[in-house]
């Protein structure tokens, strides 16, 4: 590429592409600094396990309510970029307020406020990026993977900072990362933010979806699977220290865990073609259950780090194939609704319940018992996957609608 062509690329379409990649890198850097290490802050202000569980359960509940509202605002006024700019700034500033509070009541209220703004960030950024990639015939995954890179790097780097300077540094890292993401968002022209509708009511078409046995079974499986996986992001920090690890070690563990997901996501396509999507999902869930039961036996921190790739096998495979399963097993006219319901049930309700019960289990028993609970929950999620794999119900034909499930 000549020098003039290279300059044009970086200043035009290439510059936008880089800005989108950086947007994801820093958004997820902020989340990676916050989520894996927030329990260190809770520990420093002496919250109980039940209190931590209650706070951690707030975000999914707020998201279920707030996401449709943000979507309606974006659709009604066609201001996706403005909404994302505002929520990135508000989220970063609210994050900083945590450094000034140390009581359960104030932390709980701040977390509600933070979750309200956070709930817009991922859906709106995904909407902008999907519009851009569709227009320019690019792969969404090639941009989205920078989020995984940012999350992994943040967990490691912030873990080192927290161990040296205390938990307040995680809020500073979170705020700076979102402000940096905002700066890259400002580089994107307005034309990539307008087009196609952003949201759909999750209740539209619910009657049809509830008549699809395979979809209902998968909702139950994902409720259990994602509930445990997402709750692990909150409780792993305390667990790792209980088995003898350090705060810096928590960051290293998340670096390895998150880093292992990308290659297994790439491999998931091969496994789906070779053994089918149902078998791939079933295998991922089985590995996940084995992981949690093994964690509950208090293995050494060295063993946990050495077998880091078990997250790639379980979470990487499941994440890479779950949305595909939903698309292939619901009518084309209801797939956006089906995906919204899937995320609300798995990442919303499942995470809420697992965090609530995990907090109570920690207070009544131990952190190790939390992972025994995760193993039991995930095992329950394997049962509907077995029915999907070996049961009588076949996949929905995209042009036939729900009648094909009967």
From TrEMBL:
* Assigned GO CC terms: plasma membrane
Intracellular or extracellular location(s): Cell membrane
- Keyword DNA-binding part of the UniProt annotation: no
Keyword tags = Cell membrane, Membrane, Transmembrane, Transmembrane helix, Transport
Species of origin reads Brevibacillus centrosporus
GO MF annotation list: cytidine transmembrane transporter activity; uridine transmembrane transporter activity
The UniProt entry, under PROSITE patterns, shows: MFS (PS50850)
Q: Does the keyword Transmembrane helix apply?
A: yes
In terms of superkingdom, the source organism counts as Bacteria
Membrane spanning residue stretches? 21-42, 48-70, 82-98, 145-162, 168-188, 209-231, 243-263, 275-294, 306-326, 338-361, 367-388
Supply the name of the protein: MFS transporter, PPP family, 3-phenylpropionic acid transporter
